[in-house]
Input
Amino acid sequence: MPVIRISLRFVLLVMFFFGPAESLRILLIQAYSRKMTTSEYVYVAAISFIYKRYGVFTWNKGDKDDLIVRMAYRSVLLFTAIDLSQDRSANLTSFTARWRDLYLSDPFYRNQNLRDDPPTPFLAATEAGLEMLGQVLDEAITGVSSIDIWDGADLASAFWGRTFNTTTGRVSLDKYGDRLPFTSMSYYDGTQFVVFARSRFDSGSFQWENIRAVDWHGSPNFPPNEPYCGYGGDHLRCTEKGC
Output
């Protein structure tokens, strides 16, 4: 165990964390106790999309570790694979309100627990998918498109390389039929996660677009790529000769 700890301390600067918010909290508490939440360390947490059941990435839990976690969060970046907050066409607020109204009426409300957040991301995706299918079928039936709706490959091609305007927002698919997501990267400003970079699609290729400067422990720059003691932990500055 001491060998692992030393290796992490002097070699590892970036850790990718794939897990719930509560597990990240436990990790950060341990990292803080080992002085591994300073500006030279970067913890990249990742979520598919913002949803309460995936955990709320916050320091404020109301226990004795809150202050430690709040300071440790300054070393965390949050990657969101689909961030609809970056899609100005998204209309999830009104969609959620309409969904709640429907499920609070007969005959659904007895089977639906609305004390928790509704599964809006899943409902929005289903709504958008059905509307996209409706648009494609309508184009075929009205003669706007010449596709054969009885040919699966031909039908699928009608979705590729285009953008659909739906009730829940704009959905764009590339020439391969893959959805172009609104991906984001956020840093913690001491109070909340703030998006500093998001996806930008130019001619079908994925690129990052910086939208604001970061505040990384009081600096506008991230730490150097190479660890202080080198990638192998054998840099001269960390050997006996270097000392």
